[in-house]
Amino acid sequence: MRDSLIKITNIKRNFALGDETVYVLKGIDLEIKKGEYVALMGPSGSGKSTLMNLLGCLDTPTSGNYILNGKDVSQMKDDELAAIRNKEIGFVFQTFNLLPRMNALDNVALPMIYAGYAKPERKIRAEEVLTQVGLADRMDHQPNQLSGGQRQRVAVARALVNKPSIILADEPTGNLDSKTSLEIMNLFNEIHANGNTVILVTHEEEIAAYAHRVIRLRDGMVESDTERIIG
Questions:
Q1: pLDDT digits (tens, 9 = 90+) for 1-14
Q2: 22 DSSP 8-state letter
Q3: Are 105 and 185 in contact (CB under 8 A)?
């Protein structure tokens, strides 16, 4: 039996909007084990972005418990959450979120600065992950010298650099054409095959089809949770 990596119990998230309270997540229970490949789906307003922010420790729940890799992160303070994010979670965003004046190598090494690694160690590890994503010959290029697909590969390398527990990808192919999307999703397959836990947030069925488990949200609740037979 694989170990539990994420366990959320009766998670609720409300937002105050003027005099009203908006109930976005209405009591979600979810467990994700180490090494799973999960897609999180749902229409606009289903709560999937809010749930992603909670899973990524970018936000805390109104109530309920979130155990991440054995630690209760439900009520952590901002600085504690920042430390957990840097160590446990590698983010990949639709818009790449690269720093324009830094080359690919420095963009990838950035999370290692916050994690306290020395410069020689940062360079070695950043070169390693850029080679892993097929960009050994693009390390000194700035983002504006790279194609969209190459920029997303840099973002994936940056997500991997601190050897996180989870790769959390938010619409990772949203800004890419279909050929490049296929290349990026094949890269996620490789990352998962190497033992990483991958959580994709997507509204596209063909992207979710790469995952081995699909969790669908509707109106702030889990509507369905299905595993795909692989092989």
A1: 468 999 999 999 99
A2: E
A3: no
